[in-house]
Known about the structure:
Blueprint: H1 10-31, H2 34-45, E1 50-54, H3 57-71, E2 76-78, H4 81-84, E3 97-101, H5 111-119, E4 124-128, H6 134-138, E5 141-144, H7 160-179, H8 184-190, H9 194-198, H10 203-206, E6 215-216, H11 222-232, E7 236-240, E8 246-251, H12 252-257, H13 267-270, H14 284-294, E9 298-302, E10 308-313, H15 314-320
Parallel strand pairs: 1-2, 1-3, 3-4, 4-5, 6-7
Antiparallel strand pairs: 7-8, 9-10
Helix pairs in contact: 1-7, 2-7, 3-7
Amino acid sequence: MSTTSPSASPAQIGADVITTEAAALTQMADSLGDAFNTAAELMRDAKGRVVISGMGKSGHIGNKIAATLASTGTPSFFVHPSEASHGDLGMITRDDVCIVISNSGETTELHALLAYLTRFSIPMIAMTKNADSTLARQSTVALLLPDAAEACSVGMAPTTSTTCTLALGDALSVAVMRMKGFAKEDFHVFHPGGKLGAQFVRVRDVMHQGGELPRVSSGDPMGDVLIEMSAKGFGVAGVVAEDDALQGIITDGDLRRNLDGLMDRTAGETATASPQTAEPDMLLTEAMAIMNERNISALPVLDDAGRFVGLIHIHDCLRAGTA
Length: 323
């Protein structure tokens, strides 16, 4: 319970709450052991899904744990205990593992769920503060929350207990994720949208290719090059050999540097040889970093044989959300 002076400022009260909860988290971290190992192994080895249930604030935390598990490679969903006794028990199978959350371990609304899990021998992981509770006794393994006071001023509102439950759910999620060998590439499968998804977009996913590419030959007069650059609208043109190998690139900067006698030159005479390039499998964020570092707006994309197969522009990075 918070012991801050009644005259304390809101910031002082807030700091006291965070300090109280942090101490409980440290206490819980120091107590993890065999029970946690068993719970993680049950979740890893489940043939079905990890089903979470809890009432009230525990239910809100349970929803978040289910979402975290699902996004890190462990299929999971939340079942409301009151709805469970009105038909939703049918969502839980013998191949599943259940995490049941109750600070006291005696939440009335959980009784029907506990009876069902026991009847069909469905593995149950309890999250509770009370080791002698009905929930802890009926569980396959009990993960005990620290015996720490709630951080609210009256010591009753779920604060410390819900923070510890959330952290315990995160700890299980990450442990099982590591045990399953879940990698960045797997994470992208479940997070294709938003900033998280944008971090995993590859150059090949957004590059321009085929007829969109501004292509010229080394011997083409600069008048033809200007027409090609204007038509394709990227401000660059790739100088390409007959086998599609990239010989150089012409940019707006090259045009300015060669204004004197430009129209008497050929593409090969004007181009920058050995330009900076990207690969199709490169992360778009890496390509954008190259463009930022070199202060350029476009990158030709080459395959393993050095062929000009694509082009990415800084605007493509903006549209993909990486910038």
